Amino acid sequence: MNEENDHLTIQQIAKLAGVSIATVSRALNDRPGISRQTKERIQRIVTRSGYRPSMFARNMRSQQAKMIGVIVSDAANDYFKDITRAIQDQATQNDYTVLIMNSDEDPFKERNAIKMLRNYNVAGLIIASTDETMDYQKLLGNTPTVFFDRAPSSDRPQFDTLLVNNEFGAKLAVEELIRQGSSKIGMIASGVRTSGPERVTGYKQALAEYQIPVDNHLLYISDVQQVKAMPYVRKLLIDQKCDAIFAADVSLLKVVLDELKLLNRTDIKVATFDNTAWFNYFKQPVISVKQPTEKIGHDAVEALVKRIEDPTRQAKVRRLSVQLIRR
């Protein structure tokens, strides 16, 4: 066959074979309702053309797609990078492929991603939610789903969910700041539900443990895109004269470090929730709370596979331990 024909579409194959598109589909998927002679004629055309059916199209037709859809709220964040890598590794161990989509902390994008992945007939979904109040039961239908990092709002668990001990981890970080001599500790908290309020609670618990009054002027809740974070950090450093700042996640930490550099402040102690290897190379020591990202990714896949195999099993919310890294 000529080189110009070596990427035929299914419509062109049907025309060359003198049959319908449905008949070509039956031949390609080895389904009944087609004669042996017709099937062989179609297969000869397919072999000569080098035609390869779309994996997505095949998944949409199949009732047993071996693909997992993953939706993260910030693909640029190292935390989500580490988890998606672990998801991919564990999915491979279970003979699944992975399709990853980024919602950019935008509920509209998340809804579209869910609809698109369901159209691909993925076997299941793993989601870091952007809006826990979303009607996930309606949006997900009967698609097996595991959530991580953020829990959908509900009086009782409706979906398998993996979280970490946010309160305890935040408490550990703030207590370490106090032990290192800080007495006026500001906090920039995330607007993300679940982890955001829980880390604020841990911050307050640490202050209470050391009999330091909670001053609401030292606590700011940023938006999820961190647009408000920079002026909040300046208020803590310049107006409130804090001697330490606890940033609730790495994205907020970057804002804090940028401001410290701009103001040439080397006297401020810093702590954050999350840990990355590059913290070890900073001149500015960063106390951090390490999350078990590899285990989160591994356990999310295992929970999803169990849910796929047994859709009626009771939904569970699990919390994983965190580790304080002193610097």
From TrEMBL:
What Gene3D superfamilies does the record tag this protein with? 3.40.50.2300, lambda repressor-like DNA-binding domains
Domain HTH lacI-type, by residue range, is: 8-62
Q: Which residues form a coiled coil?
A: none
Entry's SUPFAM superfamilies? lambda repressor-like DNA-binding domains, Periplasmic binding protein-like I
Molecular function in Gene Ontology: DNA-binding transcription factor activity; transcription cis-regulatory region binding
**Keyword terms:** DNA-binding, Transcription, Transcription regulation
Q: What is this protein called?
A: LacI family DNA-binding transcriptional regulator
Q: What is the lineage of its organism?
A: Bacteria, Bacillati, Bacillota, Bacilli, Lactobacillales
